[in-house]
Amino acid sequence: MFIDTNVLVGARIGESPQNAAARRHMHRAIRTREPLRISRQIIREYLAVVTRPQTWMAAITLEDALDDVHRILGSFEVLEDGPPVTETLFALCREVAVGGRQIHDANIVATMLTYGERRLLTFDASDFRRFGNLIEIVGA
Does domain 1-140 have CATH number 3.40.50.1010? Predict the structure, then answer.
């Protein structure tokens, strides 16, 4: 199962409105022994979110965020975002109407498809509905 940034942030940050749900979903996913996957895009997004203040949290230090990333990298399979993912992204953009910031979501889906992953755990199900015929959204 591919894990979206918002689930990682929600599980890490106690002040997150999604903290309890994120922790519950992550524990359930771990118990299923299904491979848990992320991409380097997710790592970059995680660092960007947790190191800037949100309406519901103060930023954490870059050092703490980097420590988090080291733990994350040790716990998840990282799907590399190379030329095959880019080709899948291009094909996907021709199939599904996307633009602007939606390209980031399309890249997540392209990464998943390239590696044969079909399940996505996310709190932003509405952002991924346009890809619903290609992936299964596991709503968090």
Answer: yes
Assigned token pair, 102? 């939606």
Angle at 130 between CA 54 and CA 10, to 5 degrees: 25
Domain definitions of the chain by residue range:
1-140
CB atoms within 10 A of CB 72: 18
pLDDT in tens, 106-131: 999 999 999 999 999 999 999 999 99
Q: 3-state class of 34 per DSSP?
A: coil
Amino acid at 45: E
pLDDT digits (tens, 9 = 90+) for 77-99: 999 999 999 999 999 999 999 99
Distance CA 132, CA 21 (A): 22
**Would you give the distance in Å from CA 16 to the centre of its chain?**
16
Kindly report the pTM of this predicted structure. Answer: 0.92
